[in-house]
């Protein structure tokens, strides 16, 4: 059996750098079962028998955040052979708080004090020997960035794991607390091993329900806690936390020598400017503009166009000189040469290659964006983004960090959704994923141009109104969703560290970029590919003259039959014509397809991007109000398959994925219904059943928007299921 | 009762007690704001909320609504 070492530490302590340094490229990235918390493990470079498990970055082992519960569940149930605890030497006090908790788990602990180079440079000194004595574990000074001391730290952790000597905490609480803990320990069932008793006793004393749920026999200690709280005039959680910090303060006094307390660090100087009351917003706007300009307006779009229209299109020019044919062209020529059957050729070209292209076409742009995000996160600016924007976004249940996904979403929803990765809080992230695609993306612009041109004489208010509808949908959804059962469960405390600024390494930025890009290809790829093939199949096959086979004309295909079957659904929205229904369905492959589909269905082989050729026909088949309702529906309903794939990837949960897609579609339907029904009423249409339905929908909407609600204060995410699934796996 | 919310920028105060309960309170304590801790109010965000404080040698941001739970002197 190999050795398992868990790497634990605070966020921003250099944990990722240490993990990368220890494991190199031998990494496996996944998710903890059932939750969206990332799980990474890797083999130690110098000893392949040793597996390093990178736990989520946490500040404490409290039961309130998903990361903390995931980490401690792993530590309690899987029992790694040793814990390598990385602490930030420039921020010892708060980092040691987690250490005092890890020491109680009854697992060997080795502490690695990181950023020793920075500590030395500032003139401070840490007495690692003394620190180890006071905490009861071996301490190694390291610099993860420079790779100094990391092998020694790993070596000591492996030795500690082999020795199987559980950590012996030197730290003791006050006599009163110790007496209470002793009493609780003596009441614990025999199923809890001796070395873990202290951990369970402390957690039970803190009234930690999540731990109690996992125990077979929970002793009745209610009166003991009550009495202790009365004697010490504080609640049990506060008593424990206060005593831990008091102890740390006493250790720090003995083992840390500060050179100069008053001097401003470089990071402080940067922050004085960057989050300055007056300069913060202009600087923020400039940074966002740069991110948008490079990853959406210029480099990112060049990369996307190159991949979509070049590699997976007609071809591209290498260095502007050499013609390189696109993959479809090469394959088509190859298939022609071997006289491939037309249906097979169509499957390969229009189904599979188009599907693969839809997946890979987004990757280059995403990689450009991910470089920026990795840099902003690693240098410490992302935390400031949340700090600056929090005031606006928290009102509708989002995080200040939701700004970036939405900004990117105006270009393309797919990288926008992927950008939600930077939001740590699970609830804020899910909310952002669900609402980001309401913002009109680049591919929805042709639909706006089509409707504006065909029905509104190109009126200039149509496009801004589409953005307004998108933003209103985000705000209202935020308010409605945060009151629903799905979201009301978990608390979202915004008590956030603003880490010191530092220059990230190129290696870490590139690694983060690649990990995210790859996870998109792997996890989002399947759904995008399958749905593209499905749409290809239903649009190119159908029944003609009683025979099933390939069809030339889209209106003979199965998709047209599906459109005819579904059209009645859209009658209340004003566009019950099957052609509109089919256009909305093909819009799921890519939103700009809506325009092309109208072109084909109205008998034009090829139309301009804004579909100018079909304006006349469209105007005669729809009223202006119906057209606007069609526009709103296509803006808000389920996004394209690529974005759905991204949603599935980021939600990492089938139920949440369908909840997101379902919510978007229902919202789109409700808003379009109201637009058409009220629009018709005010433009002279009569009052009918539809109007009544719209009034009811509007009333329901307003109720959901304004009903009272109270923020919860405990984590409801089902943690026991995490364990159950782990056991199965 | 004076709370951290009412403290202006560039002032240092000492924590007397934390009120409230549950996740937010525990989080505040976990981040090192406990009885007797010195807290320096560094700045307020450009839009007026949240605030940035220095505690135990590092920078922490918290919302004014949460700062109200922290009694100081």
UniProtKB/TrEMBL annotation, chain A:
Gene3D superfamilies: 1.10.287.1770, P-loop containing nucleotide triphosphate hydrolases (3.40.50.300)
Residues that, per the record, bind Mg(2+): 20-21, 23-24
Residues at which GTP binds: 9-16, 34-38, 54-57, 114-117
Cellular compartments annotated: Cell inner membrane; Cell membrane
Residue stretches spanning the membrane: 278-296, 347-376, 396-419, 431-455, 461-481, 520-537, 557-575, 582-605, 625-644, 656-679, 685-706
Any Pfam family the entry gives: Gate
InterPro entries named in the record: Fe2_transport_prot-B (IPR003373), Fe2_transport_prot_B_C (IPR011640), FeoB_Cyto (IPR041069), FeoB_GTPase (IPR050860), G_FEOB_dom (IPR030389), Gate_dom (IPR011642), P-loop_NTPase (IPR027417)
Amino-acid biosynthesis listed as a keyword: no
Stretches assigned to the FeoB-type G domain: 2-163
Principal location listed in the UniProt entry: membrane
GO-annotated molecular function: ferrous iron transmembrane transporter activity; GTP binding; metal ion binding
Membrane topology term: Multi-pass membrane protein
Keywords associated with the record: Cell inner membrane, Cell membrane, GTP-binding, Ion transport, Iron, Iron transport, Magnesium, Membrane, Metal-binding, Nucleotide-binding, Transmembrane, Transmembrane helix, Transport
GO cellular component annotations of the record: plasma membrane
Family of this protein: Belongs to the TRAFAC class TrmE-Era-EngA-EngB-Septin-like GTPase superfamily. FeoB GTPase (TC 9.A.8) family.
Function: Probable transporter of a GTP-driven Fe(2+) uptake system.
Protein name according to UniProt: Ferrous iron transport protein B
Phylogenetic placement of the source organism: Bacteria, Bacillati, Bacillota, Clostridia, Lachnospirales
Gene, per the UniProt record: feoB
From TrEMBL, chain B:
Keyword Iron: yes
GO molecular function: transition metal ion binding
Residue span(s) of domain Ferrous iron transporter FeoA-like: 2-73
Stored InterPro entries: Fe-transptr_FeoA-like, FeoA, FeoA_core_dom, Transcriptional_repressor_C
Pfam families: FeoA
Alphabetized UniProt keyword annotations: Iron
Protein name from the UniProt record: Ferrous iron transport protein A
Organism: Extibacter muris
């Amino acid at each position: 059996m190999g050795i398992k070492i868990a790497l634990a530490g605070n966020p921003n302590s250099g944990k990722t750098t240490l993990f990368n340094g220890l494991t190199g490229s031998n990494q496996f990235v996944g998710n903890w079962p059932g939750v969206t918390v990332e799980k990474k493990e890797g083999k130690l470079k110098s000893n392949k028998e040793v597996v390093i498990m990178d736990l989520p970055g946490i500040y404490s082992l409290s039961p309130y955040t998903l990361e903390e519960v995931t980490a401690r569940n792993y530590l309690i149930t899987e029992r790694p052979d040793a814990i390598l605890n990385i602490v930030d030497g420039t921020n010892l006090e708060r980092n040691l708080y987690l250490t005092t908790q890890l020491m109680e788990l009854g697992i060997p602990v080795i502490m690695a004090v990181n950023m020793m180079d920075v500590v030395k440079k500032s003139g401070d000194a840490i007495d690692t020997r003394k620190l180890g004595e006071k905490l009861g574990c071996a301490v190694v000074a390291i610099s993860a960035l420079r790779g100094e001391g990391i092998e020694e730290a790993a070596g000591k952790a492996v030795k500690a794991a082999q020795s199987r000597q559980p950590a012996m905490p030197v730290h003791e609480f006050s006599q009163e607390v110790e007496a209470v803990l002793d009493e609780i320990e003596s009441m614990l069932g025999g199923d809890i091993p001796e070395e873990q008793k202290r951990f369970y006793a402390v957690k039970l004393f803190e009234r930690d329900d999540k731990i109690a749920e996992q125990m077979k026999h929970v002793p009745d200690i209610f009166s003991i806690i009550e009495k202790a709280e009365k004697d010490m005039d504080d609640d049990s959680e506060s008593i424990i936390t206060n005593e831990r910090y008091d102890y740390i303060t006493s250790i720090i006094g003995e083992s840390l020598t500060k050179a100069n307390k008053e001097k401003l660090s470089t990071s402080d100087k940067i922050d004085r400017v960057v989050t300055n009351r007056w300069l913060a917003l202009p600087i923020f706007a400039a940074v966002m503009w740069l991110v948008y300009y490079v990853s959406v307006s210029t480099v990112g779009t060049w990369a996307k166009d190159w991949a979509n229209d070049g590699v997976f299109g007609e071809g591209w020019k290498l260095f502007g000189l050499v013609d390189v044919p696109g993959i479809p062209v090469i394959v088509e020529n190859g298939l022609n040469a071997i006289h491939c059957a037309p249906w097979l050729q169509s499957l390969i070209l229009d189904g599979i290659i188009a599907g693969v292209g839809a997946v890979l076409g987004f990757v280059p742009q995403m990689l450009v964006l991910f470089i920026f995000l990795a840099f902003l996160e690693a240098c410490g600016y992302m935390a400031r983004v949340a700090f600056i924007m929090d005031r606006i976004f928290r009102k509708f249940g989002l995080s200040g960090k939701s700004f970036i996904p939405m900004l990117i979403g105006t270009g393309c929803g797919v990288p926008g959704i992927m950008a939600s990765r930077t939001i740590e809080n699970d609830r804020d992230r899910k909310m952002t994923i669900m609402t980001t695609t309401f913002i009109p993306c680049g591919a929805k612009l042709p639909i706006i141009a089509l409707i504006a041109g065909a029905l509104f004489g190109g009126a200039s208010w149509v496009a801004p109104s589409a953005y307004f509808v998108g933003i209103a949908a985000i705000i209202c959804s935020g308010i409605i969703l945060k009151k629903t059962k799905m979201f009301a469960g978990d608390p979202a405390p915004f008590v956030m560290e603003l880490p010191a600024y530092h220059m990230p390494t190129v290696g870490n930025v590139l690694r983060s970029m690649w990990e995210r890009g790859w996870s998109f290809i792997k996890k989002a790829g399947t759904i995008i590919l399958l749905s593209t093939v499905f749409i290809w199949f239903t649009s190119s096959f159908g029944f003609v003259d009683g025979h099933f086979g390939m069809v030339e004309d889209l209106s003979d295909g199965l998709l047209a039959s599906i459109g005819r079957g579904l059209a009645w659904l859209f009658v209340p929205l004003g566009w019950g014509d099957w052609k509109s229904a089919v256009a909305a369905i093909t819009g799921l492959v890519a939103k700009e397809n809506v325009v092309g589909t109208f072109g084909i269905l109205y008998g034009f082989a090829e139309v301009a991007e804004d579909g100018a050729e079909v304006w006349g026909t469209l105007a005669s088949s729809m009223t202006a109000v119906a057209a606007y309702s069609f526009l709103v529906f296509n803006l808000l309903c389920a996004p394209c398959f690529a974005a759905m794939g991204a949603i599935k990837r980021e939600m990492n949960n089938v139920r949440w994925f369908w909840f997101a897609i379902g919510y978007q579609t229902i919202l789109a339907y409700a808003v379009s219904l109201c637009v058409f029904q009220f629009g018709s009423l005010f433009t002279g249409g009569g009052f009918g059943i539809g109007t009544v339905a719209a009034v009811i929908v509007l009333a329901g909407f307003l109720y959901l928007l304004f009903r009272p609600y109270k923020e919860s204060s405990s984590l409801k995410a089902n943690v026991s299921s995490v364990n159950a699934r782990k056991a199965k796996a | 009762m004076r709370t951290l919310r009412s403290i202006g920028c560039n002032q240092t105060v000492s924590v007397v007690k934390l009120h409230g309960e549950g996740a937010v309170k525990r989080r505040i304590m976990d981040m090192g704001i406990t009885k007797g801790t010195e807290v320096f109010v560094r700045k307020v965000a450009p839009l007026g909320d949240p605030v940035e404080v220095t505690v135990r040698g590092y920078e922490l941001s918290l919302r004014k609504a949460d700062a109200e739970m922290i009694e100081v002197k």
